[in-house]
Amino acid sequence: MNTRKLVLFLIGISFAGVLFGSEEMENRVREIAHMLRCPTCQAMSVKESDAGLSLNMKQRIRELLEEGKSEEEILQFFEERYGEWILRSPKKEGFTLLLWTLPGLIILVSFLILLQYLRKRSRETAGIDTSPLSKSELRQIENDLKQL
Amino acid sequence: MNKKLYFLLGISFTVGLVIVLIYGLFYASRPGEIPSAQIHKTAKSFQATTFDGQAISLKQFRGRPVILNFWASWCVSCRQEAHIIEAAWQQYGSEGAVFIGIAINDTREASLGFIRRYGKTYLLAPDDKTGTISLDYGVTAVPETFLIDKTGVITEKVLGAINKKTIDRFLSGQL
User: Fold this and answer.
1) Which of A66, B40, B42, B149 has its CA 20 to 30 A from that of A9?
2) B21 at the A interface (CB within 8 A)?
């Protein structure tokens, strides 16, 4: 009886291991498929697409993972065949790097120019005498106003 | 900094932005065209078994120009080009040109039906279940045709139905 229980327990453990392993594998397939552009669809990843080519790509990802290939190696596999275009996040180099950095650069330079401009204005206003008027000055202004 | 300098800086940024925008829109890529990483590269060799049971390998055709076409029976544009490719095969096959058609994401029965319907007689084989050949060539849709020169280098990729003019132009320089 105890042996039967042990055997059932071991079978259960093995079954759970297989299920857990395949679930983990599918998660990894989905993660990598999400990084690849579906070749036949508009603005969709391979993960989201059920097009024939996307299904083939998902199967190939699965095979490559089973062969022990890393995420980087799998992405490189598809890049070699389809070009950088297949990657949903293109590498940040060349013209792409310029596109990535330009908005930040523009904001930074604009901020520096604005800062410089504000400093200049503050220096100019610093030279103006803002002390209260004397009694004679106030009297003079009142006289001038009466004459108007 | 004086006003003139601010003005110059503003103008420089605006002009720079416009240049980048024009480059990105018109020169960096053509929206209607998917770039291919295979052009000017040696075509990956593959092995396949034709629908009539003949084992073929791309390697065996080295020294001859190859027109490698990916198709499927469910593809509308493939019907459009079916007669064109078959006619070109009839015209250039005897001169040494090789025509290979790889059916992808298709059932064997449907492919055979298509072959019979359009009277295709050149080398026609199915891709395997996981599309090994089409993935190796970076196929994005069907039909897609790769023009492989005598040295085994891919010189051109045609997306969509191929026309006679393109085949004539390619083979006139190869045969």
Assistant:
1) A66
2) no
